[in-house]
Amino acid sequence: MARRAFGTDHEDMDSSYAVGDLRVSDAEREPVIERLQEAYAEGRIDHDEFDLRVHLAMTAKTRNDLGAVTRDLVPVPSAPVHWDGEAPTGEDRMLAAVSHAVAIPTLFVGPLVLMLVSGKRSGYVRRQAAEAVNFHVTLLLVTIVTFGIGGALYAVAWILSIIAAIFALSGQTFRYPWILRLIK
Quick one: average pLDDT of 48-77? Predict the structure, then answer.
């Protein structure tokens, strides 16, 4: 009788578990945490909620517990979604990439010119050029407010501009983190 109470009886060992009741490994937690980071970067969750959900993911015991952490987050779309409903053409992608890359030597002036000239024809180019303008105006303001000390951020800005250009060239939308979005 005692054996049955502790679940060591042969028929208890043959019972099957539901997939959601299986224990999770660290390898199964990693994609969930990556999805939470994406949702935080997209603005779907705030910092406190991000911290809470990461904690829940790290302490989840079963697949059901882990699935509950991201259940309400919409999956990231696989194809680029644009407000004008059309995928960017090759020329649009190239101009959007140039708007990010030209900001390296010209700061916000190059992307602003591209936004005003090519942005009328393509919403994708306009959005990417506006993002580059906003990023470099934010950097300029930080440099002015910190009396030039913020100028050290330009090394990071070059790296981010190259990454943004690669995203734009592939037809994806890139948003710089922690910037003032003065131009919509």
Answer: 87
pLDDT of residue 10: 46
Q: What is the pLDDT of residues 6-33, one digit of tens each?
A: 444 444 444 556 777 889 888 889 888 8
Q: Around 162, how many Cα atoms within 13 Å sit in the side-chain half-sphere? A: 5
Q: Give CA–CA dist 90/87, Å, rounded.
A: 10
Nearest residue to 132 via CA among 112, 118, 113: 112
The residue ranking higher by pLDDT, 10 or 48, is: 48
| Interatomic CA distance for residues 38 and 42, integer angstroms | 6
Residue 184 is classified by DSSP as -
Residue 57 parent element (H or E): helix 47-59
Q: What are phi and psi of 161, to 5 degrees?
A: -65, -40
In this structure, the number of other CB atoms found within 10 A of the CB of residue 141 comes to: 14
- CA geometry: angle 137, 135, 116, nearest 5 deg: 75
